[in-house]
Prior knowledge:
By secondary structure, the protein is mainly α. The protein has five helices and no strands. Helix content is 76%, strand content 0%. Helix 2 (18-44) packs antiparallel against helix 5 (85-111).
Amino acid sequence: MKKGYDLEKIKQLCDGDTGLCNKLIAVFIDNATDYIEKMRQMVLSSNRKGVTEVAHQLIAGLGYLGASRLQNMAREIEKNMPADTEHFFKKTGLLYEGVASLVDALKKEIKNHETLPEDH
């Protein structure tokens, strides 16, 4: 099963520095947790512009994690903000769920010490 992120891409970005990679993941987890809460609040208040701003904030972090499916979804929400409100908020819900699942998976990865084992 695909994890939704790419540990090899993260390792390359960090030049194989395990500590830096784990810190990068931890920063993403902290930021994404805040962003998805903001996104939830924007959806509850039907603030489409706010949702697109949060989607924009997620794009770079999703990119450095190699989470291309979610990154593309965030780009679509940011750039194309569909005129159909129901469709827009449905897409936003899918992004919200995807990022929340990604955060959970990354937390488990770190907790289980499976993240970026030292190269020998």
